[in-house]
Amino acid sequence: xxxxxxxxxxxxxxxxxxxxxxxxxxxxxxxxxxxxxxxxxxxxxxxxxxxxxxxxxxxxxxxxxxxxxxxxxxxxxxxxxxxxxxxxxxxxxxxxxxxxxxxxxxxxxxxxxxxxxxxxxxxxxxxxxxxxxxxxxxxxxxxxxxxxxxxxxxxx
Length: 156
Fold this sequence. Notes:
Blueprint: H1 5-22, H2 28-44, H3 50-77, E1 94-99, E2 106-111, E3 114-119, E4 129-135, E5 142-147, H4 150-155
Parallel strand pairs: 3-5
Antiparallel strand pairs: 1-2, 1-4, 2-3, 4-5
């Protein structure tokens, strides 16, 4: 028993959907939808020629891509704080030292439930609260912190 054309188009759509999950870019999802539009068309109109099916696929995919991608990105991507959409909108946030930081050495802090490697100009003991001042120039995974003093705490 041969596989029907609408099932083939549906499975092609599944392939695009898996591709979207592997390489997120919010583009292949529209080709998934285009494949499923053709699958529906072939289901209701089984006499459609292959060339017509391909045209329906291309037109529907591109129309959906150009009309819905911006809306979809805004919906699923979310909004950034103050126009900053990177890890270091964390500057100015407070954290707790989980592993003592030696003077001009390294330790560990917990910030927003995540552990970060940190450095400071002064020694900071475990369980002391700190404020994030930035990231290390040569290693963006290391945060530069400063201990919170009474004066620092009043400013925040």
